[in-house]
Each structure stands twice: as structure tokens, then as C-alpha cells.
Amino acid sequence: MQWTNKGSALLLAGALVALTGPLAAAGTPGHPRAPRAPAAAAHPAAPSAARPAAHPAADTAVDPAEGPDPIDFAVVVDQSASLADKDLARETEAAGLLSQGEISERSRATVIGFSSSEKAGQSPVREVCELTVADAAGRERLSACVQLLNKRDAARMGPGTDFPAAIRQAVTRLGQKRTTAGAPAKAPATPKVVFLLTDGKLDVSDSPEYGTDAANRQSNGERRLTEELARARAAGVQIWPLGFGTEIDRAALTAMAERGYRGACSDVPGSVPHMRVVGSSAELDKALQETFAAARCARISHGTAGKPPADLTVVIPPIATDGSLTVSKHDPKVRVTYYDPAGRKVPTRGEFDGSTFEVGGQDGPVEALRVKNPLPGRWRVHIEAPEGHRDREVAVRAIWQGMLRSDVTLDPASPRAGEEVTVSVRMQTRRGVTVTDPRQLADLAVAAELRGDGFAPVTFRLADDGRAPDRKAGDVRFTGTLTVPAGATGDLELTTRMSAPGVTSDRRPLHARITQGTPLVTAGVVLDRATVHPGSTVRGTLDVTNNDAGPRALRLAVENRTPGAELSVSPATVTAPPGGSTRIPFTVTVGGGTPLGELGGRIAAMDPGDGERVLDDAFLEVLVVAPPTWWDRWWKAVVGGAAVLVLIGVFLVIQIMVRRRRRDLTGVTIELRADGRALDRLTIGRGQSTRGSFAFAIDDMGGAPPTLHRARNGGGHVLRRTGTGHMTLRPRGGTQISLRPGEPAGLDTFEIVVGGGATGRNGRSGRSRTGSGSGYGSGTGSGFGMDDGSGFGTDDDFGTGGGFGFDTGGGSGSGSGSGFGTGAGSDFRTGGGGTDSRTGDGSGSRTGDGSGSRTRTDREGRIPRPRRFGRPWRSGRSGGTTDNPTIGTGTGTGRGTGIGSGDGSGLSTGTGGTTAGDPDLF
To answer: In this structure, are residues 572 and 556 in contact, taking their beta carbons and an 8 Å threshold?
Structure first.
């Protein structure tokens, strides 16, 4: 349809349409209808239960009688002088929300402005929209005429507030015939509702028709208001007052709500007429939609808001069967696009994926998308506007209703008069999808009514509380019992009624017949609960007792099946032999085209020989799920195989690491010997044995003692260790030989002995050297001294700056007497920018005490001294970082005391002996 009306008119029309749809007959919840206008509120809705595949048009088309129950409503808007222009604009938009958001295309709406009449040519009411059916064409007319509320004609309307005239005009236009005076009003077939908006209180003090003076006019006005409310009650018209601002007469609004018709669309609390007051006209749109939903037995889902361009969202729950997405645009220049929860752009008119769409108000300040059978979930509404039209915040909401179908079983299926029966009810959507989540049916009340010949209607309650006869609380199966009246004869009709916020029932009856006397054939149907894939089967059993003289043929059938479900029973016909009981197995095949989800329906056993009397039936409790994917079938094998591969990989990595560790030569010492005397020792540091190999060379030049050093550029002797820990030596230019730890092996004119293990990080090789010490004691004796130390210095392997070392040692001597002495020595070395100081104790083979000094070059390495705890000390060459060799000097002094027995005592002097050992070992 093309919308050519102004924004205000569209708003009012929307309000009218919205009001008509939600209200249902008293005690009868209304049904939601398909949304018409997509522009208003396409908001992503919260994820919901899986929805069945789209059905053919024949399946989705719904007869008008199966849609939301219609209502007739009037939007009565205060246009008195106390209202500012912005208040009038907001009233217009609020009225437009109702007319555009109404969910039933069979509803009717009228829009009336009111103030007062104080002089000739004025009228207290102004009917801007006559009573109009809210179908596609009617919504266009409503959208246009609602805009007239935006302008108040002071020449034709006075400044006061004439409530009696406004209510009288609305009740007359809604057209309900009043009942006999004094008799209770009869609930109308179509609910009649007045939504009255006002910012003040009754003010007819200047209206001549109410009397000659102000006081008398006000008194008469109050009396007239009481009369008009009584007339509304008699006509079955509900009054829902909505006040805004600070000058509201709350008592008067409460009286309007309570003195009108007190019927309601359901037994749900809040559905009986009541007044509401908000702080300002800025809150009118939200408050009026909520009031409308309460009167309509519908629900409101509030979405997000934002300024264009923006994406707004709103949620439609799984139980919604009809709804409207309303968008308060304020500015007709705002353009709206709607996307369903699957992210697909939906049409503004027509059918798409099992839903029917119709938009309204696209050229006005209020737009709405009416949807029948909406996809549950989070809807997205994209809004755009040209420059200069982006300053107003746009809000989206969804008004919806779930019209549920009842799936009823009666046990026994054909009762006798005076017999107790159990009634069970499940809920299904219009598509036949069974509702299984109790949270979707919060506060639901279910009742049933039994009618038939020979007795007055009987009403009883059904519950889902787990108390007998209900088998389980929260399984969304409502159960109750009653006793069939003793006077019942012939046919029975059982109707269920559901009431909850936003939920109504279709009131379809279940038909049964009274059994006279003892039945010759009885049966019981039992069906497995199952989760199946399309194409699978469900097993069941039929237990039959045939007391007749001959065999009886019975029929098995699927009743009240989910639309689109491909279900068949095999065998469809069974024969019960006479004179006994028989158990007959059967299967229900779920066809490949059956939609996914919970299946509705019943399996019934019927006796064709007794007029298709239902002997027994059972709910079809089957959940249809998608066939398993390749991953679903094989994920355990895949995960198990991956785990095995991971374990194998870990094992191989460990093996490689162990092999590498076995080959690692870190900490291995190479000792150079000649004639059984140790000349030098070299310890392999961490990271120096590449792939289990270490190249070294013997420096034997210039008459200095031979030394060992690492061959950095290759070409030296190569020591290797295999993955099994076996060591080999390949002399430079020679043949590889096998080595045993601790056993000497010839190398050139020398021997080498390999031994030791890991020494810690950044270890250094040790050196044998001579040392000096001094001792002081009594007696004559001999001793052996050694000095130890570790160095910390700068070299190409470790650290920066100078070096430091510390040596300790002990000495003992024996002579004519015996004695024990201790001494300490210090050693300070310099070279190439580094220093190395160390202390040590030493004793030599001497008499008396002595002192000595020695020199050493920084080419002499260091090895780390093992520590009891923590990481080992690291040693380095003394000296700086230059390439020039450095020289270090050291002196040692010592003092010793001794106690001995022998010939006298004396002072003796001597020189220290040689020392051997690792200078870096403590």
C-alpha cells in the first residue's frame, strides 16, 4: 500500500489498530495476528527453539477465525488548552502506535479528541477517525486521520476537559447495545475498550450545558460522568485511563476504570481495567502500549533504541504466533529495514519461510511490521535517515500473542456415566510444534469444561505440579480429573481454556461418547518416548481385550498431527481375537520430510464396528532431530585416534630428548697426562657439545706446560658420545677409537682420561698449578698444601667487568712432635681490565713457615665449583674482554699453630710444595 498521510495521522492510526487486536472477550484470551508493517520494529530477537521447516502456503495460511481475536477500541485524546504542542504530538504518536501495532485485521478502531464546549460553534468532542476496520486499507485511513490530533482548533473546541462527553461519544461509536436497567451486563462477543489519555482533571466550569455557575457546573459534570460510566458498564465497554503530568486527579481516573465494564480478556492479573499515571507525555508511547497489551491479553517485548543510522534489536519468543514490530520513528524521513533471526531481510508484504508480513506507517512517524507465525529469536531493525533528520532517538518494541492449540486426551476415551476420567492437555503452536519449555508458559492457568446431554456444564482445573494425577511437574502436560455426571447420555464435548500473559487458546473441543453398560472391547495404547531422525520408526503396543463372540477389527490412526509431519502407523488395521486379551505391536514411521522438533499428535485405537468409537489414545512423544553428521558418528574414534597420536608423539619427543641428553657431553672432563702425571684438565661446558661432539686441541708450544683448549674452528680431536652413552675419540687425522671413563687412552705423545658429568651452566675448565703457603708451628714436620678458588671475570663466555675468586685450603704437619696448623692466603690478579682476587689456605712439605708467589695467565680456564644447594658457582677467565692475553700475579701468606710432643720446640721455615687440583672447586 502507498502511505501519503502525515506523520501524526499515521501515529494515531497505528494506535487504533494496535488497540483493536489485543482485546479478547471477557474470560476468553485474544489471539495474535500476523504483523502488517515491517518498517517499524525489525529487531533481532533472542535465540529460541528450533523452528520447523517452512511449510507450503496451504499449511501456513490461517483462516481469520483462527487468528487473534478482534477487539473494538477507541483512543480518546485530551486536547484541552493545558496541553503544549509537544504533548499533542506525543499523544498523536502514542495513538499511532496502537493503530499500527494492532495484531488482528478484524479489529475496529476510532480516534476521538476532546476538550469542552463554552460558546456557540464549539463542540466538546472531535471525532478525527470514524470506527474503521484495521485491515490493510483501514490502517491507511487511520494513519491519515490520526494526524489531525496534532492540531487543536480553538474556534471549535473550548479549553476545558469534558470527560462525560468524551466517554459518551466513545461508547456510542463502539455501538454496543445496553442491557435492561438494573440487570448485569452481558459480556460482549467482541471486547469493547476505551483508552483515554489526559493530563488533567474534569473541568466544565465554563460549559453552559452543565449549569448556570461554575460550582453548579462542576457538580453536574461529576454526576454526568457517573451516568456515562454506568452506561459504559451496561454496554460492556471497558475504560482504561492513562494520565500524564502532575495535575492528574487519580481518584477520578480510578473511578473511571472501576465503574466501566469490569470484564477482562482472561483471568490473568492485570487484565482487568485499571488506571495508570506517568510523569510526562514523553512516557506515553511506552505506557500506552503496555496498557494496550494488558487489555489485549498480549505481551510487550521492549527492544533497543538509537539514532539513525543504527541497528536496533527486539526478541520474539517461541510461543508467539502473531505479532507486530513497532518503530517509533518520530520523523517520517526515517527508513526501516527488517531482518529475521536468521539474518535474512524479510519482505514488507507477502509470505516468506512460513511467515506472512505486512508493513504500515512507512510514511509516518510510527511504523509497524505485522507478522503472522514469526520466526522466534532476535530480530534486527536497521534504521537510516538523511542528514538533518538524525537527531531523534528511535525505539523498537514487539507486541505479540501466542494462540496455542490444545492437544487433549481423555482416559478412558469413552467413559461411562458416573465414572472418574483423567484429562491431559499439551500445548502446541499454530504450526503444531509442542511447547516443552515451562518457562515459556509461566503463570499459565488451564481449565477444562465438560458439556453434554443430561447434565449442566462442569468446569475443573488442570495442573502441572507433579501431584496426582499429574505425573511430573514442569513437563508442560497439564492434568486433572472429574467424575462424569450420572445423568450424562450420548455425546460429550470437552473444551480447554488457557490464560497467561500473552497466551490464549483456540478452544477447539474434544468429542467423546458415553459408554452404555460394560464395553465388549477395551484397549490400551502405549507408545515409546523417543528421539529419532527423519525416516526412523517409533515402537508401540496395543493391548486389546475382546469379550465379544467374534473377532473385532480395530483401526490405529494418527490424530492432531503436527502440520507437515509425515507419520504413518503400521499395521493400520489389527484384528482382536474373541474371548481374551491380545498384545499387538505396531510402529509409527516418521517420514523423511517431517520437520525437526517435538512432534504433536496422538495415536488412537478406534472401533469401526462401533461408530469409530475411540477405545484409547496416547500422546506421540517424539523429538525429531537432524540425522547425525560424519562427525557425530565418528568423533569418538577421531578423538581417540588423535589422543593415541599425541601419546606417540610425546613418547617420540621424550625418546629424542633422552637420546640427546645421553649424547650431551656437558660436565665431562678431559684430563691430559704424561708419564702418569696430570698436566691439564678441561671440562666441557653447556652448549659446547654440538650433537654429542666436542672438538679440542692440545697446546704444546714454547716450553710451557701443555694445556687443553676447545678447538673453535674445527680441526681438533673430536670426542663423541652416542645415544647409548658410549664414548669415542677421533684423533685429528686419525681413526676413531673407543673410550672408557677413567681409563687412559693414547693421543700423540700424551694420554687422556675422560670422566666426570654435568657441571652446571657455563662451566669452565680447571687447571693444575703450583701454589704457595706459609705455616707456623712448633716442631718439625712436613705437609701438603692446595689452594682452591673460583673466578668471576670477563671473557668471551661470561659476564662483564672484573673477576673474583675465593680459595680455601688446609694444612697439617708432623715432626718430632705432632702439630696441626691452619693458614689463609690471598691471591689478587689483574689483567686486561679485569681483576681476580682469591684467598686460600695451603700447607706444604716444610719445616717452619714459608711464603711464595706464583704467576698464571688468563688462558688458564676455570671450572665451576659444585655447591650443596642451588646453582653452581660460575667461573670465568680473569682479565678483560680484549683479545690480548693477560697476566695475573698472586701472593699468599699464612699463619699456623701446632701442638706437638717430642724433643723441644722451635721455629722453622720452609718453602711450600706443589699443589694440584681444580682452582674453581670449593
So the answer is: yes
Torsions phi, psi for 825 (to 5 deg): -135, 160
In eight-state DSSP terms, residue 283 is G
- What's the rounded Cα separation, in Å, for the pair 699 and 176? 124
Task: State the cell numbers at 481.
Answer: 480429573
Which string of DSSP letters, residue by residue, matches 159-202? SSB-HHHHHHHHHHHHTPPPPPTTSPPPPPSS-EEEEEEESS--
What is d(CA 572, CA 552) in angstroms, rounded to the nearest whole number? Answer: 14
For helices 136-145 and 85-101, what crossing angle results, to 10°?
180
Q: How far apart are CA 314 and CA 397, in angstroms?
A: 6
Rounded CA-CA distance 98/91 in Å is: 11
> Which grid coordinates are listed for 820?
696441626
Which three three-digit cell numbers place residue 499? Answer: 490464560
User: All 3 cell numbers of residue 456?
Assistant: 449442566
Would the pLDDT of 340 be above 60?
yes
DSSP bridge partners of 618: 603
> How, if at all, do strands 377-384 and 310-316 pair?
antiparallel
Distance CA 501, CA 29 (A): 9
3-state secondary structure of 681: strand
CA distance 347 to 462: 41
User: Grid coordinates in use for 537?
Assistant: 520408526
Burial 71-105 (b: 16+ CB within 10 A, else e): bbbbbbbbbbebbeeebbbbbbbbbbbbbbbbbbb
Return d(Cα 476, Cα 479) in angstroms, integer.
10
User: To 5 degrees, how large is the angle CA 41–CA 43–CA 44?
Assistant: 160
Q: For position 51, what pLDDT does the model report?
A: 35
CB-CB neighbours of 871 under 10 Å: 10
Measuring CA to CA, how many Å separate 294 from each of 121, 421, 563, 887?
Answer: 39, 35, 31, 102
d(C-alpha 300, C-alpha 196), whole Å: 20
Computed over every residue of the chain, the mean pLDDT equals: 75
DSSP code for 849: B
Helix or strand holding residue 231 (H, E): helix 214-235
181 HSE (CA, 13 A, CB side): 1
d(CA 15, CA 12): 5
**Secondary structure (3-state) at 828:** strand
For the segment 467-512, what is each residue's pLDDT rounded down to a tens digit? Answer: 989 988 988 889 999 999 988 988 899 998 887 778 887 777 888 8
Across the range 843-851, mean pLDDT stands at 37
Lowest mean pLDDT among 254-258, 382-386, 534-538, 837-841: 837-841
Three cell numbers written together for 3: 502511505
Cβ pair 767, 753 in contact under 8 A: no
C-alpha grid cell, residue 289: 502500549
DSSP state of 548: S
Separation CA 288–CA 832 (nearest Å): 94
Alpha-carbon separation of residue 320 from 52, 106, 367, 563 (angstroms): 14, 19, 20, 17
- Residue 352 CB burial class (10 angstroms; 0-12, 13-18, ≥19): middle
More confident residue, 542 or 28: 542
Asked whether the whole model's pTM tops 0.90, one would answer no
CA dist 875 and 878 (Å) reads 9
Our CA angle for 824, 825, 828, nearest 5°, is 150
Give me the residue label for grid cell 505479532.
323
Q: Taking residues 49-55, what's their average pLDDT?
A: 34
* Rounded alpha-carbon distances, angstroms, from residue 109 to 5, 230, 658: 17, 22, 88
| One-letter amino acid for residue 694 of the chain | F
Amino acid letter, 96: G
Strand, helix or coil for residue 507: coil
pLDDT band at 177 (very low <50, low <70, confident <90, very high): low
Cβ neighbours, 10 Å, residue 444:
21
Q: Is residue 55's pLDDT more than 60?
A: no
- 3-class DSSP assignment, residue 874: coil
